Amino acid sequence: MLPSYLTVKGYGENEIIIDKSRFIAHVSRAETEEEAQEFIQTIKKEHWNATHNCSAYLIGEHDEIQKANDDGEPSGTAGVPILEVLKKRKLKDTVVVVTRYFGGIKLGAGGLIRAYGKATSEGINATGIVERKLMKVMHTNIDYTWLGKLENELRSSIYNVKEIHYLDAVEIETYVEESQTDTFKEWMVELTNGQCKVREGEILYLEELKE
């Protein structure tokens, strides 16, 4: 598992018009090739009457799966420019379909490359990019008397609180980077004068929206 990587927030779309042609970018996250293909087919069904539904996707920790499809546009003028934007933005597990409704003016090879690249880039901007960071969930058990102090300290720290369970005692779940687990434990012990129990939990990705 990668310590961190960039991908799109979820589904998004954006439309631009270039020389009377409509270019609609549909962007989504896809963690398998099957998911990417299903997304492409869904868009094709939705826009069955479009002139072209060109696509590309980039999947895998090391970009093992890369596909580009021109869907009838001149070879290399649509799918590859879409894929190149994904690579340039360093996105993983991402699929894009750019739907084109022809407006009567031919753009030429250079014009098409620029148009599909721009549509993809603006579609990604509209969707949003997140950084997924691998985190360990730390479980801190305390008496209710420590809750106010610990919650205030955590909220103003570098750590993100995942959840707080209010049971017989309080359990605070916190996202902590793997390299900082020992530091976090020591900090909790120090804040509570040793009146806490800290255990390591599951490892999962935390998503942070990139500006």
Summarize the structure.
This protein has 211 residues and is an alpha+beta fold.
Your description of this structure?
The chain has five helices and ten strands. The protein is α+β, with helices and mostly antiparallel strands and 211 residues long. Strands 1, 7, 8, 9 and 10 form a five-stranded antiparallel beta sheet that branches. Strands 2-3-6-4-5 form a five-stranded antiparallel beta sheet, with helices on both faces. The mean pLDDT is 96.
Rg, alpha carbons: 23 Å
- What count of helical segments does DSSP give? 5
Series of secondary-structure elements, N-terminal to C-terminal = EEEHEEHEHEHEEHE
Whole-Å distance between the termini? 24 Å
| SSE class | alpha+beta
Measured as a percent range, the helix fraction is 25-40%
Percent of residues in beta strands = 35-45%
Shape: elongated
State the main characteristics:
211 residues, five-stranded antiparallel beta sheet, alpha+beta
